[in-house]
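User: Fold this; tokens only.

Assistant: Input:
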Amino acid sequence: MKLMSKVMDWISRSALSPKAKWTLAIVAFTESIIFPLPPDLLLIPMALTQRKKAFFFATICTAASVLGGIVGYYIGYNFMDYVGMPIVRFYNLSNEYVAIKDWYDTYNAWAVAAAGLTPVPYKLCTLSAGAFKVNFGIFLFASVVSRSMRFFAIAGLIYVFGERARYFLEKRFDLVLLAALVLGIAGFVVLKFL
């Protein structure tokens, strides 16, 4: 756990750095493929220290995460056995990898959207979407929507509530993501019937 502690210290220091937006982009990009920590851990302190830029930071986070997701999809599509599976095994996600196949078979884009919003590691979503040959357009659309909802929900809470949002996000983050997922599904249902 010493390594994880060092990584967390680095993230905290990075949030205050003049190059924080680049660090945020790198963390969001690599988390979609291999990095173990979600970009939220950097987005939250950055948005808290510069509330007026919260949505700008959410945009960086979303764009980099989706671009990383495209790379993850490509790796899964072309190199799952050689590159993707070692990543899955490294994070001990083999059972989840098998389970997500059923999600894709049953829910397709909804599975991508759910994985993009929930604590399911997004790297598992991107690699497996490629490996299971999920339609790339659907994958891309669901990734953009779900990652936007996740990061803009955080930015919105911080923009509106400031420091009070920190406690809520730290203690009830899963609830925030679940609410975003429910709202996203409701939005898709409304759009489908319009």
